[in-house]
Amino acid sequence: MIRADAVVLRYPNAPAPAVQGVSFAAAAGRVTAIVGPNGSGKSTIVRALLGRLTPEDGAVTLDGRALTSLSRREVATTIAVVPQREEPVFPMQVRDFVALGRYPHGGAFAGRTDEDRDAIARAVARADVAEFLDRPTDALSGGEWQRVRIARALAQGGKAIVLDEPTTFLDIAHEMAVFELLDGLARAGQAVLLVSHQLNLVARFADHIVLLHRGRVAAAGSPAEVMQGEVLERVYEWPLVVARDAAVGAPVLVPLRGRGTR
Amino acid sequence: MTPAASRGVTLWVALLVALAVAVTLGLAIGSVPLAPDVVWRAMFGAGDQASVAIVQNLRLPRVALGVVVGAGLAASGTALQATLRNPLAEPYLLGVSGGAAVGAVLTVIVGLTSPALLPLSAFAGAALAVVLVLLVARAAGGRADPRVLLMAGVVIGAFCTAAIMVALATAPENTVRGALWWMMGSLGDAQWSGVRWIAGYVAFGIVLLVWWGRDLDVLSLGEDAAASLGLDVERVTRRIYLTASLLAAATVAGAGLIGFVGLVVPAIARALGTRTSRATILASALAGGTLVVAADLVARTALRPTELPLGAVTALVGVPFFLWQLRVTR
């Protein structure tokens, strides 16, 4: 679905590229996660997928078509990106907010066709936000807000959804709910690309992990392949061990205290 | 009808009634008081000749200019607030109106006084001011901070005021309206020839903004979210700035600098329950017209026979509101 081939990304006027030759693929029906320390290039990749940064070299393709050859609206109807931060200054009703997901499909006065209504209804059901539809967006909790934003992204009707740190400010229950929702979307055939700091949760939910380090891929593969103490220790520059969680059987990263003294 | 829909209808009816009341009072009150029914008949040419002359030739141009100026300022403020994601944004505080005034004053001094061209030269000044304000804000630490942007706007606005003062001081006497007219705003010089053009420009600007209503909704989500929905952020932002500048410029050409209307009115519209940009723009246009006509009525009658500058009245209302808004804005 989403494919990056040896992509080089550089911010305007930056001396060095932030992403240097990164390749990955986010396939339909799978949760793909991009992880890595701060400054490893995760958000830069999201920026490129938003069309706000053009690759200096290499290519990003959607369904085999180069991202740069598609119009913005074509991109938006193929992949939906849920950016990391978003605070509406002027609250709107959740119903109207989710309906904005149909924006790339219509002109100035479009957006209320049967197709639009169906897509919105499906997105609302899928993200389970029906009970909030008549609330203003500033009357939602953090977890509800994330689900509403995911509903808007689903209303775009694309085959892929990209999320940048979707659970940063959420407590355990809401964080798990978001991950379960993303897992369900992948099982239903969506390509889910997730940028996250939550390595342990990613190890449980993702089918494929891409570990970035200073703008390059340090490791990529299944959770078992990527969750290796040696690699993670080098990438995160902190002593750590990878254990196997006794209860769920997933690899768990445990950072050590005081530079190795537990 | 659903409760939400009937609330919506109530809102529009209330806004229209308020506007009609303000217009009627604006036409009725003056040195020769007229009864409301006389006013309404005179507006359509019926009744005694003196009343018809007073209403149609003297008072109606002024009240019409007030409606148009209020609608233009309020719509401009709504668009700027959504685009900049900043409830404190409005053409006067952002220096846009000041830039427009410089453009207009320079044109008048040069000797071009065509009522069709004046709003356009004001527009050139306003657009230049927008560019300068954004550049200053970026240099001072980013326009993401609502206060930095505002500071840049106030600074550019002060510079424009100084430029107007210098230009007027060196202009030959009796060729231009006084500095007070430009700085503090007035509807006193309203004439049909000018009002028609200004109404045309304002209507054009509001139609564009309503047409782009969904773009404004998407843009108000923030740049990343807007980009994810396929909106060309740079291009759409540019044309909204230009349209908001045109609206502000037309009002400045017709009535000088009138502050705070673009700040207060969109907030009122939102408080009344409009949630989409399209509804907020239309409701603001109606409420803005009402507010300016009412403010002009206060300016004319509060200290009769002295007439207060219109901009002084709107500032007396607007500054406390601004301070309160500053407190609640993060």
Structural summary, described in words:
The complex is a heterodimer of chains A (262) and B (330). Chain A has helices at 42-49, 72-78, 94-99, 114-127, 142-155, 172-187, 199-205, 223-226, 229-236, and strands at 2-9, 19-26, 31-35, 57-62, 65-66, 79-82, 160-164, 191-195, 208-213, 216-221, 240-244, 251-255. With 262 residues, chain A is of the alpha/beta class. Chain A has one domain: Rossmann fold, CATH 3.40.50.300. Chain B has 330 residues and is an all-alpha fold. Chain B has 14 helices and no strands. In chain B, helix 1 (3-28) runs parallel beside helix 13 (277-301), helix 3 runs parallel beside helix 8 and helix 4 (96-110) packs across helix 11. The two termini of chain B are 38 Å apart. The mean pLDDT of chain B is 90. The chains are: A alpha/beta (262), B mainly alpha (330). At the A-B interface, helix 2 and strand 6 of A face helix 9 and helix 10 of B.
Helix- and strand-based class of chain B? mainly alpha
Measured by DSSP, the beta-strand proportion of chain B falls in: under 5%
Count of extended strands of chain A: 12
Instruction: Please bin the fraction of helical residues of chain A.
Output: 25-40%
Cα separation of the termini of chain A:
42 Å
- Approximately how much helix is present in the residues of chain B? over 70%
CATH superfamily of chain B: ABC transporter involved in vitamin B12 uptake, BtuC
- Assembly state: heterodimer
- The CATH architecture assignment of chain A turns out to be 3-Layer(aba) Sandwich
Rg value of chain B: 20 Å
Which residues of chain A sit in consecutive blocks of at least 5 with pLDDT less than 50? Answer: none
As a whole number of angstroms, the C-alpha radius of gyration of chain A is 19 Å
Helical stretch count of chain B?
14
What CATH calls the topology of chain B is ABC transporter involved in vitamin B12 uptake, BtuC
Strand order within the widest beta sheet of chain A: 6-7-8-3-9-10
